[in-house]
Request: fold
Amino acid sequence: MPLTGIAIFKLLPKTNCKECGDSTCLAFAMKLAAGKAELAACPYISEEAKEKLSEASAPPIRPVTIGVGDRALKVGGETVMFRHEKRFENRPGFAILISDTMDDAEIDGRLEKCSGLRYERVGFILRGELVAIRNDSGQADRFEAVVNKVKEKSDCGIILMSTNPDNLAAGLKACANRKPLIYAATKDNLERVADLAKESSCPVAVKASDVEELAELTDKLSQAGIKDMVLDSGSKSLRQAFEDQVIIRGAALTKKFRPLGFPTIVFPYEMTDDPMKEAMIASIFVAKYGGIIVLSDFQGHSLFPLLVERMNIYTDPQRPLATTEGIYEIGTPTESSPVLITTNFSLTYFIVSGEIEGSKVPSYLLVKDTEGLSVMTAWAAGKFVADTIAPFVKKCGIESKVKHHKLVIPGYAAAESGGLEEELPGWEILVGPRDAAHIPAYLKTWKP
Ligand code: SF4
Reply:
């Protein structure tokens, strides 16, 4: 049972020293109880109190890591129901399904998709993270062979899927050092699978026929010493699975109900045979509240939008994606090359730089720090106006890189051209296109 704020307060030093950032120990205790503070923020808590408080200060949804090294995937750790309250912490992982009844060519093809379908967007690499290996053959040796193949050919995280603990043990023998997710403990095999999870120190998925049974099973596993769990409520319809996700998240966050305080796993392919509907269902679980989303296959035309959706939802709504202020050289610009300026909203930067690159006209792009705001928003907020642009242009060092003094400003900031000519004596201010798509045509007309 989580401790109340008052119970936590009794274990704190009660000196009100404020080093944790709160004005009193009581205020800190209340935040801790609500999962909005970290125990480590108070340097004076005794070891004994720390032990007692660690449970109370743990995130309401336990973070669980699958895999090792650079490709390890952390899911869970969420603290809010809605993104605008704070932010979502750990993006859900996408898994591609591989059955151990598939032939080698099919398995190889899927592994290639898993590593090959990767996209760069606003400076981030987007890709799926996991391979879910399903033991449809029912044979331990075949399962182990396929797990070995996946392990050798892919650095993705692994989910071992079987209802037979002996076969799960065979799969674990092949890849326990990669810390796979063991799927799944059920009411029929709970003790055997719990032993496998403990022996291998791997996370385990718990599968039940409904949320109530799920809570009973996780409770038993917790008592058996299992900490890292992933929840499958067993729903086969979109409506039920969606309701289960909301119930699980709500119970963990608002009721602090520990038996449901774990990330979830969902299987959209079990809810439809239509690949496009499967992608749409997956998109719902990206938003609410899938921890791992297993897809029947990875197809670029459906995986890419899912990855972009995930990126958008799991960015911090209070901190726009921003690019570092500075001079960016596109192509190999010379002292006669055009000089353009834009804001440091990442999407703006990547669109503008992409269009300049596409124009094949080597250029300098000045990126002004506007706290991640786009051109129009920054202009309206007074962060991309003559008074702020001019000092940046003077100090950024562009004057020593070009022999001309012509600066192309975005069409949406045209109103600043007069002010800039006053603030930047000797510079000619040119108004570029409003729409980045017109930059290539504009640059073709460039004369230093
Ligand atoms: Fe109290 Fe610790 Fe915060 Fe100091 S740092 S006010 S002792 S909770």
Remarks:
- The two ends are 72 Å apart (CA to CA).
- The chain has a mean pLDDT of 94.
- The longest strand covers residues 93-99.
